[in-house]
Amino acid sequence: MVTQKGYDKELLNVSPESWDFCCKGLVLDMEDGNFLKLAEDGTVLRASHGTKHMSSEDILETYGRKEWRHFKTMSGMVSRSAKYYAYDNYFDLPGALLCARIVDILNQRSPRQKYDFWKDVIAAIQYNYKTSAFKENCGTYFPEVKRNPEKYIQCCPELVKKWLRRLKDSGKILLLITSSHSDYCRLLCEHILGNDFAELFDIVITNALKPGFFSQTPNQRPFRTLENDEEQEAILSLDKPGWYSQGNATQLYELLKKMTGKLEPKIVYFGDSMHSDIFSANHYSNWETVLILEELREDQAMVRTKMESEPLEKKGKYERHHPKPLHSVSKQWGSFFVDTISGAEDKKEILVNTWSCKCVKTYSTITIPSIEAIADLPLNYRFTRFSSDSCITAGYYPKPPRSLLSSGEQVPTK
Fold first, then answer.
1. Nearest-CA neighbor of 278 among 175, 364, 179?
2. Contact 51, 104 (CB under 8 A)
3. How does pLDDT run across 232-268, given as a tens digit for each residue?
4. pLDDT tens across 199-236, in order?
5. Which of 98, 144, 267, 349 is 20 to 30 A from 8, comparing alpha carbons?
6. Are strands 223-227 and 230-235 parallel, antiparallel or unpaired?
7. Chain centroid to CA 364: how far?
């Protein structure tokens, strides 16, 4: 953004305190330069212009107490938009702070009504994360991770590795599906799981281009084989386990039918992105989905095992300044799950659920703070799942967030 697109060098200076702005569930209204936290009915709970907090009066004047103009389109989550962007995972969450600071800097130069910087953000993403960037050692991301992988990548706790082995030994078919290209996937997994990581999985699919992996005909991408991390010609059908690139959920399911000998094999899919993982797998493929939502840690004292190589707060990324973990409650944005609005008549504050909280219940089967939270459970453990007729807290494991319990929701009993 600075060297190629001419943006202010001040963008390169990030103070630890500024990380408080980062909060999952925010939506960027690209044209207005506003960030929004939405209630489950689409009304605006909190907002900022750039990084600058908007008061309740500002929000009422700008948005009123009505559904945000793009809410119906966004809540469908079927496609991305050129009008807004929802931040729902930690990989792209720093981009929210970047965009907010761009708005701040543009306003310093000359206040404006509309913004058009998003095209430059997309160009920067394509430059840094294109499929060939890892091999070509270009951009600012891959070269740094390749030089210092131990600085950015945590080893997987032995508890989780044992869980994966138990699953495989019990006859389960294990899949690894990632949008990362094969060379980057290999670097990550060798540091996370060890050089023999591929032995844990029956099928590895890289460059899956989620959520497109779950698309239906005619938008399905064919699978491709790999040679030295280079994609080869498309294959018509998936006939055997192995390592593949791109592809689609429909052909994968046909292969799983053959491997299991079942007409309707059940798939349980773990992911941390509501749009790319959980919604898509649930909506298009009807898979059972497990949302990994680290915000649950803020309400639960996760017990560290002796085998964990890093603290839960991902200190490796922020060793120098020790800012708050990204899953901590933001002072500017509040809880991921709930927020308050003023009552219409008596002015008393009313607690309401966020749009993000509604999505958790609607599209995930269960939600956990980490794999470690379930890794030592028996493989036949029966979880209480979310369902249309259950309370909003039913599917959280090991327990619901306190913020939801304080809103009057009851803990489900087995």
1. 364
2. yes
3. 999 999 999 999 999 999 999 999 999 999 999 999 9
4. 999 999 999 999 999 987 778 999 999 999 999 999 99
5. 144
6. antiparallel
7. 13
pLDDT tens-digit readout, 315-352? 333 344 445 666 678 999 999 999 988 755 556 788 99
| pLDDT tens-digit map of 27-74 | 999 999 999 999 999 999 999 999 999 999 999 999 998 999 999 998
Structure token pair of residue 72: 């119906």
Give the alpha-carbon dihedral of 282, 288, 293, 298, to 10 degrees: 130
